[in-house]
Amino acid sequence: MGRLSASTKLADAVITPAFDPNALKPGILHIGLGAFHRAHQAVYNDAALAKEPGDWGIVGVSLRSLDIVRDLRAQDHLYSVVTRSGAGESVQVVGSIVRGISAVEDRDELLALLVDPAIRIVTITVTEKAYGLDPTTGGLDRNHPSVAADLGNPTSPVGVVGYIVEGLARRHAAGQEPFTVLCCDNLPTNGRIVRRLVIEMAGARDPELANWITGHGAFPSSMVDRIVPAATDEARGRAAEMLGADDTLSLETEPFMQWVIEDHFISGRPAWDQAGALFVDDVEPYEKMKLRLLNGSHSMIAYLGQLKGLEYVRDVMAVPEYRSLARRHMKSAVKTLDPVPGIDLGHYIDQLIERFENPTIAHRTRQIAMDGSQKLPQRIFAGTVEALSAGDDADTAAYATALWIAYAKRTPDIDDPRREELRAAAAQPAADDASAAFFALPGLFPQALIDSRAWRDRVNAKLADIEADRI
Predict the structure, then answer these.
(1) What is the value of pTM for the model shown?
(2) Residue 203: which residues within 8 A CB-CB, separation 6 or more?
């Protein structure tokens, strides 16, 4: 069986691009060429180009990996996305990525693209930890390796914020308009956060550059949603049978897909709205909905699964009491939300339960459990502050927090950028306040939670139940 390429003869059942990928010219540069982007934004882009053609091809950038770029090139930049649910499956070949480059060996090419007037939008999916965000100040963490490197040598960047700033600096020097920066990571008000980080780094090198970005730049916020498990050999085998060709880059995902975007672009945008994306004036209600209902319960499920030896989200949801716990957490978290235009929140919760139960999606709890110190502040802690101020006991949030602490204590090789701090906290004697060392970690818990003795006692009680295996 040959490898997927532009010359592959595909079966009629395979969904193929409704445009000529070879004729597509680039207009978007995407930083973070991982599975989520390829199963979400690139799929939206294919659908938008089918509705309204234009020069909106994607140049995909990997900041760290060479393999994915080489695999894309070997397949003429084509790959497949298999959509699976209990109702069946379908396969689509995506063609809107026109080029892949790696910053490891193509830094000069990447910097040239950032100043190329054809590139009008830079989109980003690099996960929360890659931005170098100081959780205490909300600005740059100057001890973050890439931030420190880019402040010290700004014209040879290594981190995502450094590349954005250097690209904008070169545009400013050339008398060009800036590109629009569209963050698609799970950060609340992600556009505002990235804007602040970019302006702060720009100001450190040239106040005039910072002023220009402040006055002329565009950083729309967005909310993205689609469950995309890590790829497996089994999934690639299924895709090969459907395609009649091997696809090293094949992905599996669920039918559900959502993208909500603040409509603020400098030099136009693809017709993503015709592909199902929602353009709004304010993304924040949608972000909070997703972070607190989907992501918050996902984290709870992940730590529960890791503690109970349940490999996949679907395995956790197959246990009635755990499924009930997830629903109770969502019903509690929904009380902290304002109305979300166009969304029935009760129906949204029902959708989430159904999505988590999807028997065909092998979403590993270990994958979701990564980087808890970066995820829980917006997924669990922010909503808990609001719940307590409204007189709620935030019981399920205490449970989720205790599950994470128990997981950190039981996992010496925890995958988290604050790993050493978490290991040190886990090693401290529990005494009468088992969670104290974790609450003492700088910039992790909001002060309102640190000060709430009653809620911390609730966390400790839950932690005692977990450690005594009473869950």
Answers:
(1) 0.92
(2) 209, 210
